[in-house]
């Protein structure tokens, strides 16, 4: 089923935030007026793309993720995404082409930690080139790749971009760890 551009944008913002949100917050994130946003949310709910876990709050459903091209992840797939990537498949941070930082990330948790150690220019360089998206896809994580593309589309920059990306990766790590039945470390 094809979505209107407004409904797609609302779903994309909900995917990026991935927490129950009030309709007014969704309208603000989508830079839309409240009444039409509410109308679209009701339509998306009827289609099964959005649910309301609590009165006044909305969250994207797995079906909503699916319409955005994000497949459901099994326990086995979650474990595979979280596994340690060999050195040749690690993410290598660069400041720019030909200028490596000697920082390598071997899994999502490692990536979140190394992201803070990398120069901000490196994070911006890789986000704009689509390198993060490509690495997340290589790990098998289509959802994180999609969220990273949406982050880039929103033109986040500087520390705000780094903080958003780190937060997204950390949350994804926790969600996948729970799904895979792996212990979730409390310290970093």
Compact description:
It contains ten helices and five strands. With 188 residues, the chain is of the alpha+beta class. Helix 9 runs antiparallel to helix 10.
Account of the protein in words:
The chain has two domains: 5-67, Arc Repressor Mutant, subunit A (Orthogonal Bundle), CATH 1.10.10; 75-180, no CATH class. With 188 residues, it is of the alpha+beta class. 59% of the residues lie in helices and 13% in strands. Helix 2 crosses helix 3 and helix 8 (131-139) runs antiparallel to helix 9. The relative contact order is 0.12. It has a three-stranded antiparallel beta sheet with strand order 1-3-2. The protein has a two-stranded antiparallel sheet with strand order 4-5.
Which terms summarize this structure?
Arc Repressor Mutant, subunit A, 10 helices, globular, 188 residues, 2 domains, two-stranded antiparallel sheet, alpha+beta, 5 strands, 13% strand, three-stranded antiparallel β-sheet
Run of helices and strands: HEHHEEHHEEHHHHH
Low-confidence stretches: none
> Major beta sheet, specifics?
3 strands, antiparallel
Question: Rg to the nearest angstrom?
Answer: 17 Å
Global structural class:
alpha+beta
Oligomer: single chain
Q: Total number of helical segments?
A: 10
Question: What's the layout of helices and strands?
Answer:
Blueprint lengths: L4 H13 L3 E2 H7 L4 H13 L3 E5 L2 E4 L1 H6 L7 H8 L8 E6 L2 E7 L2 H10 L2 H10 L1 H9 L2 H12 L4 H23 L8
Helix pairs in contact: 1-9, 2-3, 5-10, 6-10, 7-10, 8-9, 9-10
